[in-house]
Design goal:
Elements: E1 13-18, H1 23-28, H2 32-40, E2 50-54, E3 60-66, H3 70-73, E4 90-96, H4 103-112, E5 128-130, H5 138-156, H6 164-178, E6 181-186, H7 189-192, H8 196-202, E7 210-216, E8 222-227, E9 229-233, H9 242-245, H10 253-267, E10 273-283, E11 295-297, E12 303-305, H11 313-325, E13 331-336, H12 340-346, E14 351-355, H13 358-370, E15 375-378, E16 395-396, H14 405-414, E17 423-427, E18 431-432, E19 442-443, H15 448-459
Parallel strand pairs: 1-3, 1-4, 4-5, 8-10, 8-13, 9-10, 12-16, 13-17, 14-15
Antiparallel strand pairs: 2-3, 6-7, 7-10, 11-12, 14-17, 18-19
Length: 461
Amino acid sequence: MTLSFARDTQKAIPLSLIDQSKLVAWLTKQPTAVRRWVKAQDFSAEVGSVVLVPDRGGKIASAVVGMGNAKARQFHRFPLAASVPKLPKGTYRIVSGLSKAYAERECLGWLLSAYSFDQYRKNAASAARLIAPKGVNGRRVEVLANSEVLTRDLINTPTNDMGPHELEAAARKLARRFGAKVNVIKGEALLTENFPMIHTVGRAASNAPRLIDMRWGEAGPKLALVGKGVCFDTGGLNLKPGSSMSLMKKDMGGAATVLGLAKTIMELATPVQLRVLIPAVENAVAGNAFRPKDILTSRSGLTVEINNTDAEGRLVLADALAFACESEPDLLISMATLTGAARIAVGTDLAPFFTDDDAIATALVDAGVNAADPTWRLPFHMPYEKLIEPGIADLDNAPAGGLGGAITAALFLRRFVTQARRYIHFDIYGWQSQSEGGRTKGGFGQGARAVFSALPNILRL
C-alpha cells in the first residue's frame, strides 16, 4: 500500500487540535452554537477524544480532537494519531493547534494510522485523509511513512512467502526502482567466496542461504548498512519451544529495517555512497545442521565455538560485517533482532544501540526524540570481553550464564569491525504487540528514522 496526503482541498473539513490547558480559551472564541455543542459532548480534550460539529443541515461542519496536556502526550508516540480512527471518512485540514515543533511527526503518525497489512485478507484502515499543513514537507513525510510500510510489510509476511529467495527479490525490486546495483552470492558459492558462517547457519534449509549486496550512489561518505536476514529461526538443534518460535518470521526485522532506511536514503537523494548487506538464511533443523560445540572459522579468520545454535544471528552478521569493512566505510551500522536480553533491558518500545562515539550517541538520541523513533544507548562494556572468549576458540557465540546478553552479543560483533571509521549496532525488536495510534499491531520498524535524521550530523552532510 502507499500512504499519501490528500490533494483535494475543496471539501476539506476544518480540524482543530485542542490542548487541555487551552480548551477554555478556545471555547470562548467559538460561536455560541459550537460552544454549547462541544460542552454537551462532555469534551475535555483528552488524547484520542473527538467531537464532530454539525452544520444546520446535519453535515459535518468541523471536527475537534483532544491533544491532552504535555504530561499525557508523553504516553503516546503520535498523540494526534490516537484520534484518527474515530474520524469519519473524509478529507481534513488542520486549522489550529498544531505545534510547529511536532508538526512533521504528528502528520507522520496520521499517515501511518492508515497502514494495514492486507496481503492475505482485507483489513479495515482509517479512511480519514489529511491535507499536508503549511510548513510541513509533505513529500519527506510521505517518504518516511512509505519506507516504514516497506519494513512492516516485509516483517509481517510469513516465511513461506518471505524466505531468503523472496527477501532477495524484495531487495532487487527496491534496487530497480532507484537504479541501485545488486550482487547476490548464494548456496555453495558462499564457501568459495569465503562466507563460511553464513553458509553454515543456512545450509540445513531448503531455501538456500545467500548474501545480498546492494550499492547506490557514487559520491559522498561511505555508509554501510548490515541487516540480519534470518527469515525464520527454529533455534536449530537447540530447538526453541513453540511459544518462542511463534514470532520468528520477524527474525529478519534487521534486514527489513535497513531496506526501509535505504529506501528513505535513496528516495530523498541523500549524498552518500550507500551499501546494504543482508545475510539471508533460515536457521533450520536437518541432518546437515550445525551443532553445539562445532568450531567455525569466519571470513575474518577468527574462530567461533558454537555453544548454542540459537545464537545464529551474530554468526551471519559477523561474515557480513567483515566483508563491509573491506571497503573501509565511514560509518557502518548493523541492525538485528538479536537478543531477548535487549528486550529485558529496555522493553519493546525503545531501540537500544551501541557505539563507542559519544557524539554519535547524542545525535541518535536527540534525533530519535524528534523523529518519534526513541533510542537508548547501551554500553560496549569492556570487562565483559572475557565472557566471549571460551579458551578453545577465539570467540564464544553464546556465553554461559546469559547475563548481559545484549552487551556480549554486541561485543562479539564488534570483534569483526576492523576497518570502519565509526560503528553503530542496533538490537531491535521489530514488532508492535498491541495497536496504538499510528502503530498497528505486527511488524514495526525501529531506529531507521532516528538514523536518517542523525545522518547529517554524523556524516557532516
